[in-house]
Amino acid sequence: MPLKRLPGSHALGATVLCCALLLHGCTAAIIATSATLASTMHDRRTTDAVMDDQEIKLRARATLSNSTELSSRSRMHVTSYNRRVLIFGQAESSAVATKFAHIVSRQPKVKAVYNEVEVAPLASAKELSADAVLTSRIKTSLLRLGVKGFDPSRVNVSSSQGNVYLIGLVTAQEGPQIIEHVRGVSGVKKVIDIFEYYER
């Protein structure tokens, strides 16, 4: 939109103000872009894949929460990594989990869906809290994994009633060591890995 010229000193003031606003807008854009770049700096996914994963995850979660039929009969969770979607948790029947997995598989840009939902009583608030603590404990412990060049941020960790789900881009050297390490963390009952192997 063209700027109106104002007489006298007001013109200078308006110009300074407009420049300041423009600079503020540019600064905000630069900060947002820098934050995105910083978050993907050590990621083996492309920036497009990271953005797609966020979109896939949010859309799937919205679909679940907006469906009374699915949400009232399950406690399912969704995560996406490199356009590969993991669904886990509990459902009243396999039909509920299968229906949701089918809906997610039809979303744009989804490459694969891994349905790890168990037919079991829905997790209680106490169990959900314990899962969150276990996930945090595992993420922290991965910082001590003795594999050269390994970055824990490249592995997505999720837990449900002691079952631990690992998804991410790892090397042939990293994968087995990560799995073995996680198995040794207190509170872990079972490790389910859905790794995609990355070649340097």
Keywords:
about 200 residues, alpha/beta, 3-stranded mixed β-sheet, about 50% helix, disordered N terminus
Account of the protein in words:
Residues 1-23 and 27-38 have low confidence and may be disordered. The strands form 2 sheets. A 3-stranded mixed beta sheet has the order 1-2-3. Strands 4-5-6 form a 3-stranded mixed beta sheet. The protein is an alpha/beta fold and 200 residues long. It starts with 8 loop residues before the first helix and ends with a strand. It has helices at 9-40, 47-66, 68-71, 94-105, 125-141, 174-183, and strands at 74-81, 84-91, 112-119, 155-160, 163-170, 190-197.
Write the layout of secondary structure elements.
Elements: H1 9-40, H2 47-66, H3 68-71, E1 74-81, E2 84-91, H4 94-105, E3 112-119, H5 125-141, E4 155-160, E5 163-170, H6 174-183, E6 190-197
Parallel strand pairs: 2-3, 5-6
Antiparallel strand pairs: 1-2, 4-5
